[in-house]
Amino acid sequence: MFLVSRPECFDHNILSEKDRRVSNLDPDYKYCDAIREGIFSNSPNWQGGGWYRFHHPAGSMLAMSAPGDRVCGTDAPGWTNSTLPDNMGESKAIEICFQWDGTICFWKNTGAATNCGTFFVYYLENTPDCRSRYCGST
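Below the sequence we write its predicted structure tokens.
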């Protein structure tokens, strides 16, 4: 049996808010994934830049396609346009886009994704604007 020895597979934060899912179309939720003062409130599970795993009910992974404007409990939802690592224990750099005002990649962040076997973890930075948040999907 092969065990993943990457530290981020064992030491990471959890993003589990149900309003973070791409299926959340409620415009009344206004959160951001940034530790700063802004228009919206900081997301309850956001701890600043670091390794994160998406977990039910938020979904099981970072959204892999543009989810649309004003979903996931924010105005500018974050998703990745990168492929994820195929092999267990593999990590790779990813680009993360934030959709805003009809532009699917208005703001960008870089991050990383690690394949932990049965799940992925992501290195996520504070979002570039406090109207943006990382979106979960399944």
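The first strand starts at residue 13 and ends at 15.
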